[in-house]
Amino acid sequence: RRTGEALRAFHTAIRSSPGSSRSQAMKEQAQGTMLKVLTSFKSSEIEQAVNSLDRNGVDLLMKYIYKGFEKPTENSSAILLQWHEKALAVGGLGSIIRVLTARKTV
Amino acid sequence: MAYHSFLLEPISCHAWNKDRTQIALCPNNHEVHIYRKDGAKWSKVHELKEHNGQVTGIDWAPESNRLVTCGTDRNAYVWTLKGNVWKPTLVILRINRAARCVKWSPKENKFAVGSGSRLISICYFEQENDWWVCKHIKKPIRSTVLSLDWHPNNILLAAGSCDFKCRIFSAYIKEVEERPSPTPWGSKMPFGELMFESSSSCGWVHSICFSASGSRVAWVSHDSTLCLADAGKKMAVASLCTETLPLLAVTFITENSLVAAGHDCCPMLFTYEESQGTLSFGGKLDVPKQSSQRGLTARERFQNLDKKASSDTANATLDTLHKNSISQISVLTGGKDKCSQFCTTGMDGGMSIWDVKSLESALKDLKIK
Prior knowledge:
The complex is a heterodimer. By secondary structure, chain A is mainly α. Chain A has one domain: Alpha Horseshoe (Serine Threonine Protein Phosphatase 5, Tetratricopeptide repeat), CATH 1.25.40. Chain A has helices spanning about 5-15, 25-40, 45-50, 55-70, 75-100. The longest helix of chain A has 26 residues, at about 75-100. Chain B is about 5% helix and about 45% strand. Chain B has helices at about 300-310, 355-360, and strands spanning about 1-5, 15, 20-25, 30-40, 40-50, 55-60, 65-70, 75-80, 85-90, 100-105, 110-115, 120-125, 130-135, 145-150, 155-160, 165-170, 195, 205-210, 215-220, 225-230, 235-240, 245-250, 255-260, 270-275, 280-285, 325-335, 340-345, 350-355. Chain A: This is Actin-related protein 2/3 complex subunit 5.
């Protein structure tokens, strides 16, 4: 598995995140997909992936990270914490605030 | 930067007199204390005791020298200086929740009060009955009004609310003024008319500010965003998702530059690029002291590791001047178009005066447009 594939899957997952009109089923499917993509990354690849996002992308990523924390699987939290560290470095505390204040959750 | 610690408790709100020799503030209780500058010191010269609840807003009219205060006791008082005593006049706001903010209009013939009753009371003096009366602006406000700012034409009023919206209303009172001429926000301005409403951000709007010309309005919300609506661009809204904790106060210092501050305890510069319709972060304005960079001993490293699970030297204390959230910013000199000094007060009970020229020379990358 090459780095490029994971990065492409990541961008696809971010881009196709369901917008405002969505069913619970759609949301859960997107969450599952995103979690799979995030956990498939090697630690060393995370920073590059985060840096390739724009401001809205970082905010969206942070929302998915916290959603992932909500429903932990066996190994998910460890890798999510690494994603969190990198996303925080770019998005700042503001991106976490917006996870808390968002009316439309992921 | 001149910092003065007034209290050990938060300064709820403050207002300056015209020549900036006196400051009126609420020391987190039911009173208003007025301090006068005495050389390098501040001496308390008056204590205004009338409110039965915390004073949430103070405004000092520069020309008529009257104070207006509002509080959680659902009342507002207009204070007039008679000799050396401030005499209060009760204003019936007809609200059933706490008043949260108050502002004199530019011509000082009206003032507006925002409250938890989800409405704005526009108060004006009725000569024949010798008392203050008020009219309400209600629709379509759905939650507490946290902040207000008047347009220079004395008619339009911007209001920030807990329903996540910034709105501009007409507060035209035919009893005290002429019909207003058209502005970029619209031409028909009957009382209560909604001239502008922002689309939902996701946070309570803590503070709102018109630019000096009145053609721009900016606001900060609890979702850590700063937004600006430009009437010169058909009310297009530019917004910036900041990396900071939520901002609680914002003011224009030029037509294109804003200073905002909040839970990060430090004022920050933001710039509006008119040609692109974008807002950008211009830097923190708090110049940190030269902290002594001595290395940690092995013992200290181990202690850090034991206590904080980390051996890095990140400070547990704040480097900023204010040691707690800044809740209010006021322009001292130069007006909102050429501000040369502004003032911040916060929950640390301190008041700081910031000099724009000193900031420009101290922070080399600072660009105030």
